């Protein structure tokens, strides 16, 4: 008798877990959120300080290619309310301190 009550109680307890809504997952965003407005203001010939003022500090500056700046953005557990970046990987290449090439991967 005690064993059947214990089994019944365990079965009801485990089935109750399915009644609750799934737990909230916090969207984890990393990198530089770049809007279309910021992207449209970016122009060839800008200085490094102008680009830094417009977009912020790049996420990655390659040690072997110091004139190549990477602005990356990732988001996990994204839903409809999570802000998304227009550019997920924006690569800017400078020559003598001026912007010469813009690549949006």
From TrEMBL:
GO cellular component: Bam protein complex
Record GO terms (molecular function): protein-macromolecule adaptor activity
Topological category with respect to the lipid bilayer: Lipid-anchor
InterPro entries: BamE (IPR026592), BamE-like (IPR037873), BamE_dom (IPR007450)
Localization (cell): Cell outer membrane
Pfam families per record: BamE (PF04355)
Gene3D superfamilies the record matches: 3.30.1450.10
Superkingdom to which the source organism belongs: Bacteria
Protein name: Outer membrane protein assembly factor BamE
Organism whose genome encodes this protein: Marinomonas hwangdonensis
